[in-house]
Amino acid sequence: MTRIAGVVVFKAKPGLGEEAAKRIAAALPAVEAEAGTTLWLVLHSNASADTIYLVDLFDSEGSLNAHMTGSAASQIFATVPELLAAEPELHPSTVIASKPAA
């Protein structure tokens, strides 16, 4: 089971959550080229329209490091910050339990 994860919380300026989510999601092609990123989700909150969660899983610490210095992260951090009300909150995480995707 993959145990290395990351969660990033983006808080957009009022009314800009949908645009911020679209810009984050635009990095999907770059993520798809990353062999070690096993799961990558962009979640636009239904409870808070200006909050976006990015959740990813990696097959190794090296894959996490490659992802954080790769083209997807570069694209996100080049296009999204102008829409944000605060700095993104990065939460390196460890998976405790999971159910495999279907």
From TrEMBL:
SUPFAM superfamilies reported for this sequence: Dimeric alpha+beta barrel
Gene3D superfamilies named in the record: 3.30.70.100
Matching InterPro entries: ABM_dom, Dimeric_a/b-barrel
Record keyword Protease present: no
rRNA-binding is among the record's keywords: no
Alphabetical keyword list: Plasmid
Domain ABM: 7-74
Entry-linked Pfam families: ABM
Protein name: ABM domain-containing protein
Source organism: Rhizobium favelukesii
